[in-house]
Structure formats: structure tokens, C-alpha cells
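Researcher: I'm preparing a figure for a lab meeting and need a structural model of a single chain. I don't have an experimental structure, so a prediction will have to do for now. The sequence is pasted below. Please return the structure as C-alpha cells so I can convert it later.
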Amino acid sequence: GIPERYRFLPLSHEVVDQVPEDAAFDGAFLLDCCDPSRVAEDFAERMAGVPLIAVDHHAGAIGAVDVAYHDSKAAAVGVLIYRLAQALGVAPDKAIAEGIYVSLITDTGSFRYSNTDAETLRIASELVEIGVEPARVFQAIEVNKYYRRWDKALSEDNAISERQQKGLSSTMSRPGRLSDYEPGVHWIANWVLDRVLTPSEA
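Model: Understood. Here is the structure written out cell by cell.
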């Protein structure tokens, strides 16, 4: 299947990680990968005689494929997909645009990494014009990720805090060498949480 954080994408429910043994294919595309040996142990055997087309932007050797569209200078595989769509005369709808946009932001750190270039930003702008909502995508991928981590870590944090309190209440306890910095650490944590939990007030 697909990781939970990407399940907001249209058609994500159609992504599978296994196919029937008797399934037949006219061709296979490798996206974000140029080496069939990295896909699955039985991939080469299952795809014997099937044309393999690789679309990838990672540096490295190209594996045993029939056709490869490879550009290590591209910021993301989404850039290559967008170029192909334009070359084929395919006008991306909102569903396609969202998928390409997610590719751009995940590989560029939401346009913060050094691989972010003019082409990437230009494509992102055109995708937004098609209908992509950057705030909605960010909420789905990044903010919800922190909420899920918070839910998983909360019980552990409570247990740690209880043990710390027991230690502080002990007659043997002494201030640690970094204890003076504790208020500052908590202030920063609360400042961040305020902006995550109530972003409208940031």
C-alpha cells in the first residue's frame, strides 16, 4: 500500500504492493529508480520480456531497462513527469497536479534544499494554478505527521516525567549542571506547540 501520510492523494487507494501471480503486463515504469534489482527480488523474473521504462533523477548507474529518462540535475522525479506530460500534450488535472506537487516538496524539503531551482518553482506555480492547495498538502503531510508522533510519544513522555519527579522529590537529589536552562527549553517547546496547535494565532 501507500504510507498513511500520502493517503489523502486521489487514487492512493489503488496503490498495491503485491500483484497476482498470473497478472500480465504490457510494460512497466520504474519511477524514482533506474535499477530493477532494487524493486523486488522477483521483479526481473516477473517482468521477463516486458518493456521496462525508467524515469529517475538520482545520480548513479542505470540498470537493465529498455528506456531510461534520467536527469540527475532535476530536483525531483515530479519535474521529469511534468516535462513528459508537456511533451506528450497531456494537461494535468488536479489529481495529477497534486501527485507531482508532493514529489516536488518531498524532494526539495518544501523548497528549502539547495536543489530547488527556477524550473521547480515554476512548475510548482503552474500546479497551484491548476488547483493544488499548498496549505492543504502541508497540513496532510507535515502537520498531521507531528500529531501522530505526539500521540505515540505522549504516554512515554508522561512516564519519563513521573520518574523525573520522583527523582526530584528524593532527599538525595541535587540540581544538575544544565538545570538553569530547563525553563528556556520548556518555553521554546511551548512556543512551537502554540503555533502547531493554534496556527491561526501565530
